[in-house]
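thread: overnight batch results

M.L. [08:02]
morning all. the overnight job finished for the chain we discussed friday. pasting input first so we're all looking at the same thing
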Amino acid sequence: MAKETQGALARRERQIMDVLYARGRATAQEVLDALPDPPSYSTVRALLRVLEGKGHVRHEQDGPRYVFLPVVTRAKARRTALRRVLDTFFDGSTEQTVAALLDLQSSKLEPQELERLAQLIDKARKEGR
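M.L. [08:03]
and the structure it wrote out:
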């Protein structure tokens, strides 16, 4: 069984995970082909083994090739990363986090996005969160 997923990912590891999330599954060569400013093939293989050791990916054998798949769903990985940012930079405060995001996005939000956010806030109030 893989080790429990833990720790922040390095830049290249995040890039590899992005490729795997986008494709659902990929060989080392497919990952290499999708990376910006790609490293060597052997580096990609080594990073995939590191990610597998950390419990982020697993592999299946497809003939002579290994096909790599994310272990954790993108949604769960997103929640884990967001929780880490919230705790690290905003002292665990959802209010501070949302305020910072709104400050960054205020000029880009469409009216329907603002309405959806208002609905989510109303729902949270009703549920007592």
